[in-house]
Amino acid sequence: MPSPQRRSDPFGPIETAVSLLLSLFVLAMVAFGALGVIGYLHDGSTGVSVATIGDPEACALVSNESVPSATDVPQRGIRRGVGSVIAERVEICIAEPTAFQKAASALAPVGDMVLGVGALFLLRRAIRTGRRSGPFTMDFARRVRQLGWFLLVMAAVWPFVAAAGRGVVLEAVVPRRTWTYALWEPGISVTLIVVALGVLTTARLLQRAVALQQEADDTV
Question: Does the keyword Transferase apply (predicted)?
């Protein structure tokens, strides 16, 4: 009698890809951290930085309206009368920052790193829960909902935290600018908000599907 055909695992390829990406992230951070420690112990300083942590300066990327005089780009090397060069964003740096200013400037890059690693971690956890208990279970729906809320917070709330950090650098470098100026330009990603809402909607649909399945099982 021929052996029954094995069921394909829909979560398998996705979990492999997500686990690989997460492992690369972690290995890269560990490698850069080890190189930084070795450099510091050997030379007393390190040229390695992770999410700007380790850089001697405190820098922030701000809009051209924050520093109008610094965004005047010489119109050389282009076809005159055809196009023009405009600096939409400019990087400003504090040469000798305080610990607070350095921490504030690191909020934006650290947030980007947390978003990437956190999303991969929560996605892998949801996938493993789906493989273990099935896609139409409350455990899997709960994991998907956690991923959605994480993405929504990082998309709608964290940009204002990062903007406040950029504002600290802006206040120190540019006269007549306060840290609140950057809050008007948080740089919110509409795409990420839509994705987060889509994940939350999927979680609600999964919860509804589980409830309907339970009702069907109770009536049998």
Answer: no
Query: In this structure, what token pair is assigned to residue 183?
Result: 């809050």
Tokens 């996938």, residue located: 127
Give me the chain's average pLDDT, please.
81
Q: At what angle do helices 190-219 and 138-156 cross, to 10 degrees?
A: 160
CB-CB contact of 136 with 200 (8 Å): no
| 151 pLDDT more than 60 | yes
Instruction: Tell me the one-letter amino acid at 138.
Output: M
- Whole-number Å distance between alpha carbons of 84 and 202: 45
Residue 59 sits at φ, ψ, to 5 deg, of -120, 155
- SS3 label, residue 173: helix
CA gap 185, 67 in Å, rounded:
14
Which pLDDT band holds residue 46 (cuts at 50, 70, 90)?
low
pLDDT confidence bin for 21, thresholds 50/70/90: confident
